[in-house]
Amino acid sequence: MKRGSILVTGGAGYIGSHTAHLLGEQGYEVTVVDNLSRGRRHNVDPQRLRVVDIADTDGLCRIFAERPFEAVIHFAAYISVGESMHVPELYFTNNVSGSLSLLTAMVRSGVRHLVFSSTAAVYGMPAAVPIKEEAPYAPVNVYGESKVMVEKLLHWFDLVHGLRSICLRYFNASGADPEGKLGEEHEPETHLIPLLFQAILTGQPVTIFGEDYATPDGTCIRDYVHVNDLAEAHILALEWLMGGGASDAFNVGNGSGYSVREVVRAVEEVTGKKVPYVVGPRREGDPPKLVADSTKLRRALQWTPRHSDLRDIVSSAWNFEKKRSVQQAS
Ligand code: UDP
Q1: pLDDT in tens, 201-257
Q2: Which atom of ligand 1 is nearest to the CA of 190?
Q3: FRET label pair with 204: which of 112, 213, 234, 321, CA 20 to 30 Å apart?
Q4: Does residue 225 sit in helix, strand or coil?
Q5: Catalytic: which of 28, 78, 123, 143?
Q6: Would you say residue 2 has pLDDT above 80?
Q7: Ligand 1 binding residues, C-beta < 6 A
Q8: Three-state secondary-structure class, residue 267
Q9: How far is 75 from 95, CA to CA, in rounded Å?
């Protein structure tokens, strides 16, 4: 069955490529916009790809003129918290001005539905866990602030222009497409699970950032959510908007937290190998515990994660990592 045309910005990146793939499988006509500054060309079907920067408002308008687009799913953004604290201008320019350019192009072109890739970082150090959507904005880094700013832009674009949007606030995106073609490939990599694999594959120890937190084993607790479950949430949000639903924001997480040590153990079980690690100081700005209350998403959009088991998440990521390391060696 042929469904509507959807524009996916940042569709050559990690979550964007999984979502574009799932949209295609479900019969949507997908166009990916990516400037390939951090995304990977090989993640996108070449026929779908338009190499355009989201800052190029006229370029986006030309793409919107190609066919009637029903909606946009907006992933294109820089995502490294550490980098955002060194070069904030890069994050405000790309994430905020870039989004403003996209919204301008959408209004000019009459496209009025957008699903936005937001983050748990909008909550900063939450006072209560599990976190509900009503928790106040309190970002503690530039990356989180850049996402808050876009959420606020979206509020005003709805009020003034009737552009409806869903903000999905992700917890820890992880795992890989079970087929093993798509996965996490950041450069440089900063995320825990791929770093644990790299430590196994290279023998170079990974650093655990702090073991003196007020958690049962002293390491930080996070809510790891499978990238395909995230992709599914985007499609449900899209369908909600296209069905006339109002703008809203939803947390996307499994609602169960795992400590860094528990993730290390899961990686050792799945791979059958010891992870070489050292314990280092805390990483600045790391909250001790981030776990989602995703009741709202489950109830309003009937979202049900299919890969909520940590071992399932880790084994899909390991499957991808093994294929990738074989390809890199050949
Ligand atoms: N972490 C760690 N060592 C690393 C990378 C991450 O101990 O080399 C910890 C980090 O402190 C956090 C968890 O692993 O508690 C997940 O971090 P990640 O960077 O993957 O995602 P974040 O929670 O920052 O979005």
Answers
A1: 999 999 999 999 999 999 999 999 999 999 999 999 999 999 999 999 999 999 999
A2: 19
A3: 213
A4: strand
A5: 143
A6: no
A7: 172, 190-192, 195, 206-209, 220, 222, 260, 283, 286
A8: helix
A9: 10
pLDDT digits (tens, 9 = 90+) for 131-190: 999 999 999 999 999 999 999 999 999 999 999 999 999 999 999 998 888 999 888 889
CATH: 3.40.50.300, 3.90.25.10, 3.40.50.1440, 3.40.50.12160. Which one for 192-222+255-329? 3.90.25.10
Say how many C-beta atoms besides its own lie within 10 A of residue 29's C-beta. 16
Instruction: Assess whether 143 carries a catalytic annotation.
Output: yes
Ligand 1 centroid vs 76 CA: distance in angstroms?
A: 22
Q: How many Å apart are CA 231 and CA 30, to the nearest integer?
A: 14
Please state the atom number of ligand 1 nearest to the C-alpha of residue 210: 7
For the chain, where do the domains classified as CATH 3.40.50.720 start and end? 5-174+224-252
CA of 81, closest atom in ligand 1: 24
Fold category of 5-174+224-252 in CATH: Rossmann fold (3.40.50)
Whole-number average pLDDT of the chain? 96
| pLDDT number for residue 225 | 98
Q: 56 CA to middle of ligand 1, Å?
A: 34
- Give CATH 3.90.25.10 domain extents, the chain: 192-222+255-329
Distance 16 CA to ligand 1 centre (A): 21
Task: Please tell me the distance from the alpha carbon of residue 143 to that of residue 256, in angstroms, as a whole number.
Answer: 24
**242 with 329: CB under 8 angstroms?**
no
pLDDT (tens digit per residue) in 13-43: 999 999 999 999 999 999 999 999 999 999 9
Q: What pLDDT, in 10s, does the model give residues 212-225?
A: 999 999 999 999 99
